[in-house]
């Protein structure tokens, strides 16, 4: 058995608002072993991204309040780390790919400048930074990286922007890559390419992966395990194939039923009946 890279134990996160305290994440417990992958699935507002951002305490506090629980990364509790230690973990230990590369990349700096900053911060031993940037851009499938690294984000397509984001994350040599809705802003063809790229890179570098997604269909073949979140809670957790083929919770079944299927004779897409879910929860 490989050791646990990440352990989330009974994590609860609240937000202070003008209307009072809102419970965003409620008693979540998850684990991830080195080299394995986990999908966190659910709709917008289910607590997926809040959970992901909490892994390196990226949630601004206030308004966020870590109300309970622990997050252990390589045996260290993230919630009690010093600011200096956190800076080393962010990017160097846990790297993120966000869902909107056009807003995640700084529009006034070239791709080279942005990746170089990450390398200098987390891998100061690298002597030839440009060669390292070219290597990672080539690794993620960007053609003519020697030229394209001098481009600004607006000069790249959405798919190339996302590949540049992946290259930036990988250049820090993280143990864990968190991909938060990495294909949301992309068309279906580019989505498939990015997902295939993540699968290839994970296998090539034996890297752990957490995929945050509302689309339960894309988890097959990419993630070993799955956690389904509903209203801030994990309602189903286990082997991805088992959940996809035999979902146990009503919410998971509802998510599966919403997936459009080729050849279906249904004239209308199914929607989730929250009144029934509330009655059963």
Automatic annotation (TrEMBL):
Keyword tags: ATP-binding, Cell membrane, Membrane, Nucleotide-binding, Transport
Membrane topology, from the record: Peripheral membrane protein
The keyword Thylakoid is annotated on this UniProt entry: no
Matching InterPro entries: AAA+_ATPase (IPR003593), ABC_Ni/Peptide_Import (IPR050388), ABC_transporter-like_ATP-bd (IPR003439), ABC_transporter-like_CS (IPR017871), Oligopep_ABC_C (IPR013563), P-loop_NTPase (IPR027417)
GO function terms (MF aspect): ATP binding; ATP hydrolysis activity
Localization terms from the record: Cell inner membrane
Residue intervals of the ABC transporter domain: 8-256
Principal location class: membrane
Gene Ontology BP annotations: peptide transport
Gene Ontology cellular component annotations, sorted alphabetically: plasma membrane
Family stated for the protein in its record: Belongs to the ABC transporter superfamily.
Protein name listed in UniProt: Peptide/nickel transport system ATP-binding protein
